Amino acid sequence: MSTKIRLLVVVCASLLCANSVRSQTENKYTTSLKQAVQKLSVGEKNRDTSLVFPFLDSNIAFTARGETQTINLEVFKKMKTQMFTNPGRDIITTYEIEEVKAGSTEPVWCGYDKGTFTQSTTQKNGQYKRTISGPYYRAWKLENGQWKCYVLIVMAFTCEGNDCQ
Question: What pTM was computed for the model?
Answer without folding.
Answer: 0.78
